[in-house]
Amino acid sequence: xxxxxxxxxxxTVLVEDGRITAVxxxxxxxxxxxxxxxxxxxxxPGLVDAHSHLGLIEDGEGWAGADGNEVTDPNGARLxxxxxxxxxxxxxxxxxxxxxxxxxxxxxxxxPIGGQAVAIKTWGRTVDELTVRAPAGVKSALGExxxxxxxxxxxLPSTRxxxxxxxxxxxxxxxxxxASAADGSxxxxxxxxxxLAGVLAREYPLFQHAHRADDxxxxxxxxxxxxxxxxxxxxxxxxxxxxxxxxRDVPCVIGPLIHSRSKVELRQRDPVTAAVLxxxxxxxxxxxxxxxxxxxxLALQAILAVRAGLAPDDxxxxxxxxxxxxxxxxxxxxxLRPGLDGDVVVWSGNPLDIYQxxxxxFVSGREVFTATDTSVDAE
Length: 379
Hints:
Elements: E1 12-16, E2 19-24, E3 42-45, E4 47-52, H1 91-97, E5 100-105, E6 113-121, H2 127-130, E7 131-141, H3 144-151, H4 160-183, H5 191-200, E8 206-210, H6 213-226, E9 230-234, H7 242-248, E10 252-254, H8 273-280, E11 284-286, H9 298-307, H10 312-317, H11 321-326, E12 344-347, E13 358-363, E14 366-370
Parallel strand pairs: 4-5, 7-8, 8-9, 9-10, 10-11
Antiparallel strand pairs: 1-2, 3-12, 5-6, 6-7, 12-13, 13-14
Helix pairs in contact: 4-5
């Protein structure tokens, strides 16, 4: 299942020097290349999650491993998720067991500007080995989370007005910094301004945490004002403004779908949102928002979306090629296509069948996960 093309029965994926060099039914395998025979199984690209806190909010560590929110400054543009990730987090092994080979790790949503996102693979010894792209975007949040974080302290921002004011001030300052740099009057380095300057230059998007339709409208208003690329994260009420999002070509990272209405902003949570948006023409990816839903359940998000009306092909795209494109990595991950990384996952069957599971995982052509022989279909 190349995802980016038609299924190939009895096909071969050829990986050389970490990259896919051929995919098809009649691929000639060079003599020096080892052959992995998985006849009767389904072979797909590694899954991609465009919104997670993997390694940044660690499993089983509690306070000691919670490094997702630096709630001391509402403008955290200079902060980098890269600097807080622990590759020893056991959730990395879970990701591989769920077929997830690439994800975007972002700071949390307590700050209006949380910091810089990093795209990583889910296998490697150090975060530097894991990193695919940094920065891969800047995380921002509207609505309830920053209001709560700073309102409890009677500090700015304690309202939606205050949150947007922080964002607007930060982008104006970054824009002024760029102008000053052009005429030679700016200081040599300002990490926060420079991170936002990359957003303003459309080098990478602003990932906007927003649930309510009014917050989504605010996110669009700000993007129009400053001209940056916008990606909505969660977008719980996005189905109410689907036409507007399609008109503006704003991608949405929806989910997690297996989640309760745990706060006011989630009252309108409905798994049908992904299907409504795709029908309207909005690019849709699905997420676990790990660790709030374990990252190995990414395929389950797709299954739930199908049950709520999303077409199976679109569901597979929502956990492969679409998140890869959102992350700016369509030339690296998300499909089985020559030139892309050799991230290949062998499933016991259709991954949209709840009874199927991951059997083997290859990252850049190297086998990094093999299932134990405990399933009912073990040979």
